[in-house]
Amino acid sequence: MKTSVFSNQLFGVVIFSLAILFLGACDNVVHFKPNRQTELDYKIYRQTTTSTMLKGQNEIPGTCLQIDLQINAKNNGGNWEWERTFLDLRRNGWNKDLLAGELALKAPLKVSFETSDNRASFVGLDSVYPLLHSIPRDPRITNRLMGSIDTSLYKKEWMDRWNLMHFLQDGDYRPGQNLDIMALNKKLVYLTADSLKINKLVKRGANQCLEYSMYYTRKDSIRLDMEQFFVSYKRILTEIQFDMDAFVTNTPKIGTHIKEGLWKEEKLSGQWRFALNIENAFPCFESRKEQVLLELKDYNIKQKIAVTIFRFSENVYRHN
Question: 3-class DSSP state for residue 273?
Fold first, then answer.
């Protein structure tokens, strides 16, 4: 049986197209087999911004806080000795003393991390309390805010950052590839991952970096969110008659169980993104964004007020 010239040409086009798709798929593969180092010496340039939005109103920008940190770490037989030193702090926007969790980064910190047991010991978090007490705040909220500062939270966040940053194993990865969240959740002590995926290969300066993201939700956001709300209420509640005295008086200690009907909180949603140098697995970039909806009850006018709180931070890494 004879075949037409058109059929032969069509067959050739199909074969050529399949070859292009195959080669394109191969080109998208990222070979991640870094020469992992046993000593880390780098600076972190960190910026955190906040904003708040009342229902039906425009988003109100909050504080922009920039912190420079020096990090030194060394691997001793599989266990890491990690040290953080504060370098500089710059603040602008209203309420410059917002975010106790960020300001706590000024305290020097040393961590000994046992990778096999996923355990860490911390030296320096006890200095967080005098540091934060020295910051002037509205006296009506200072004691409640300080009572909410839980250094165990900082420890858990440090461990989750470390485990997420060191989660990628040697291998080949493709953009959009989903990773095993069950394995990750076994290592996380503070957050629960909903998904984890490879984003793409990105260029950061002169480095080629593999970027990946974890999406998560959590419910234990009372301390962080209400810290931001309490110290910013003068700005975000100027157009409504909200009785802050009654709210503070009737609110139990932040971070504990909140009385039913006082406020309602939805799950906090977040994304944590990392980029690692494919040559040595050094971190290139890190960002984290979170948002949560709070529904507050006003004792004075018997009104429920919906407040959405946003927070974004990013770390740029420069290796010495």
Answer: strand
